[in-house]
From TrEMBL:
The protein, known as: N5-carboxyaminoimidazole ribonucleotide synthase
Domain of life: Bacteria
Taxonomic placement: Bacteria, Pseudomonadati, Pseudomonadota, Gammaproteobacteria, Pseudomonadales
Annotated PROSITE patterns: ATP_GRASP
Underlying gene: purK
Pathway field: Purine metabolism; IMP biosynthesis via de novo pathway; 5-amino-1-(5-phospho-D-ribosyl)imidazole-4-carboxylate from 5-amino-1-(5-phospho-D-ribosyl)imidazole (N5-CAIR route): step 1/2
Amino acid sequence: MKIGVIGGGQLGRMMALAGTPLGMSFAFLDPAPDACAQALGEHIRADYSDQAHLRQLADEVDLVTFEFESVPAETVAFLSQFVPVYPSAEALRIARDRWFEKSMFKDLGIPTPAFADIQSQADLDAAVAAIGLPAVMKTRTLGYDGKGQKVLRAPADVVGAFAELGSVPCILEGFVPFTGEVSLVAVRARDGETRFYPLVHNRHDSGVLALSIASTDHPLQALAEDYVGRVLKQLDYVGVLAFEFFEVDGGLKANEIAPRVHNSGHWTIEGAECSQFENHLRAVAGLPLGSTAKVGESAMLNFLGEVPAVEKVVAIADCHLHHYGKAFKAGRKVGHATLRCQDMTTLKARIAEVEALIKA
Ligand code: AMP
């Protein structure tokens, strides 16, 4: 089976690393000449709106999936005429736009911060009056890793903020005084069977994921599964979806969903029976799903900007290196390490060892 992937970054690369043993081959459509997934499959170097190349991709593959959600809706609609596309155009339409996403949470009874649609500075002023400060303003589309957002703490921060974010449609959200951030990675098959990985504790540095630790028997697991299950059913979703939550007042508030494999699920490559990448491929290909059970205690640390010396990373016991083969650039996700240990005490010690390398 040949899988077409829109986007050829590290997520596509890790998908191919998981799918190749299943007998799958891959074609990646990505405009970047140095798209790092090209080491694992065919690279169709074209813009996401280039219909001739989209048609080429559709003709070559059995189905198409995505490694990022900011794909133009027209691209998905165009591809869907020729080839099955998972997740669906509708799932992407909702997940790529924070207003649609939050409105869906509200409709499904999933708690989320107060929010308002912002189309102008006047809308922003009215929303600040209603929601109060502090608040977080975010572009409705194209924001990621803390980009396209601004925390408004004082009235002076509100002045001109709409123009500062590019005068594009935004939302304003109430600021959540969270005690922690967790995510749930789930997979849903074509026949509706759904499986959930354990909740993951996430630490972000400057809006970018730094550390994920897989939990054991988290008291909020069942609640998170209930919320995520509602979304998967509503969207008749096929594939892996990640749902990010704030932990607050002993409960959960929805932050956002990603309709794809997710950075907070990278630990599953070594830390779960079947990784998020393999399970995504199993789901879209109509294969039985694999076990989402955890194997030991597991964590993931991102390498931003550069990967520490390979010999030092692999010298750490229980440590697995994933080097994406990308050019090093400040702030860029260029690799990660997964730690898989017998117990939590050892895991914490290993995390400290990797963090020391990152800081060195
Ligand atoms: P996002 O791109 O929406 O995931 O936001 C990136 C990070 O900003 C989150 O992981 C939080 O650490 C922080 N953040 C986003 N929205 C809020 C909010 N409403 N209240 C408090 N912190 C937030």
